[in-house]
Design a protein that fits this description.
With 244 residues, the chain is α/β, with parallel strands linked by helices. The chain is built from seven helices and 14 strands. Helix 4 runs parallel beside helix 5. The longest helix is centred in the middle third of the chain and has 21 residues.
């Protein structure tokens, strides 16, 4: 099984006969729009193709994904229900999930968990591996700007979601989780708390845009919490999960 980093919070999982693309925003090419690992390779990869979108924010959902059906008539879209609610799509364009919903077929099982922003996060069981994509689930607080009360509420809401997740998935093979320095001092606090509560074999940073240094800064803290850390250095980078 391979994990491909597309851009920002966009990833693809390559398994035997199955491809899963999550939170596509832009393809991996920095020079040419609409070029990169998705268009040049993943959309042509044989097997079943799933496209997951955690919420309607444009850095997680790009309506371009719906045009892929012309190339792949068998594509299966699994979107957060807020995408439909915000009229980014119509009811017949995807299967829509809310927190607590489960999608399962002969290839994959996906359970929707909560977020501390909008939309959902995804727990994916695929060919003996358990993977988690956080969407916008994080301890979002701006310590230099927020009041103590706002910080306390943000942390309480986040830890409540993590406790719910932990009841179902106390152990994960892979967790893709935001490490975004734009929120300022203490930006890794949510990632620390997540890794403290849930046993993660491989921690993958995301939601860092072009700030690779900021995303990868969590490496030592992840290792201190027993995680292998995926150090991402460029768009379109691929990782063999079996080698980690």
């Amino acid at each position: 099984m391979k994990l491909d980093y597309i851009y920002h919070s966009g990833f693809a999982i390559e398994a035997d006969g199955v491809t899963v693309i999550i939170d596509y925003y832009k393809d991996s090419s920095e020079e040419v729009s609409g070029k990169g690992i998705v268009h040049d390779y993943l959309l042509k990869r044989p097997g079943i193709l799933y496209v997951l979108c955690s919420h309607f924010h444009p850095d997680h959902f790009n309506r371009e994904v719906l045009s892929w059906k012309a190339l792949r008539p068998d594509i299966r879209y699994l979107f957060s229900k807020d995408i439909l609610k915000h009229r980014r799509t119509s009811a017949d364009e995807a299967t829509y999930l809310s927190k607590g919903d489960i999608y399962e077929d002969e290839h994959i099982r996906i359970q929707a968990f909560g977020s501390t922003d909008v939309g959902i996060s995804f727990l994916i069981d695929l060919q003996g591996k358990r993977l988690f994509h956080a969407g916008d689930l994080n301890n979002w607080h701006w310590s230099e700007e927020s009041t103590p009360q706002e910080i306390c509420k943000a942390e309480g809401d986040f830890l409540a979601e993590v406790r719910t997740l932990k009841q179902i998935a106390p152990v994960m093979d892979v967790a893709m989780f935001p490490v975004d320095s734009r929120i300022g001092k203490g930006y890794m606090r949510g990632a620390e708390q997540f890794a403290e509560q849930i046993k993660i074999a491989i921690f993958v940073p995301m939601h860092f845009g072009e700030d690779y240094q900021g995303g990868n800064a969590f490496c030592q803290l992840a290792k201190e919490r027993g995680c292998c850390f995926l150090n991402i250095t460029k768009r379109g980078e691929s990782f063999e999960l079996t080698n980690l």
